[in-house]
TrEMBL record:
EC numbers on record: 2.3.1.-
EC primary class: transferase
Residues of the N-acetyltransferase domain: 18-158
SUPFAM superfamilies reported in the protein's UniProt record: Acyl-CoA N-acyltransferases (Nat) (SSF55729)
Gene3D superfamilies for this protein: 3.40.630.30
GO MF, one example: acyltransferase activity
Protein name: N-acetyltransferase
Entry keywords, A to Z: Acyltransferase, Transferase
Amino acid sequence: MTAKRNTPVALIRQAAPFAIRAERASDVVAREALLDACFGENRHARICQRLRDGRAPAEGLSLAAVRQDGRLVGTVRLWHVSAGGRSALMLGPLAVDDDCLGVGAALVQRALAAAKARGHGAVILLGDAPYYARFGFSAGKTGELSLPGAFERDRLLGLELVEGALDGAWGMITPTGAVPKVKASRTRKALLAVPHAA
């Protein structure tokens, strides 16, 4: 008679198929919900948010990961900054649905490839070094850079897409991205359409 062994089995989640595409205006609600779920409702108070507030993401560098059913399961954006006088991009936030394996890595790889193809020289971020090291990020050239507020020095990471792009970078990281044009409000449009009495 053969005895049954009670061997623990590790459950491996299957990666659901997904596609990465440019972010669309129709993604906003799902994107905001995913960011809230990943970072909490106080995410707007985070230090890197100060570099994004009132700025538009870098053109062509806002990506969304969507499943076959159209559900948004990941997002990443890159933003123009000055890294101590050096032109660079800031990566973040990167957010991924808990049930989706491989989405975060795929988004980062696609974002970095797109940034390089567009001629950008460097990308910096504030994040977990063990996770981002696999993409080539390190604190090697960010030691003289600062952010507008308290931050953990070992989490400020950089990646040169062009060799030497961060050489000699020192000082404050500041936003340089475009300020979105504000469209005229409906009220203003309505007022302009009403004929005025003389």
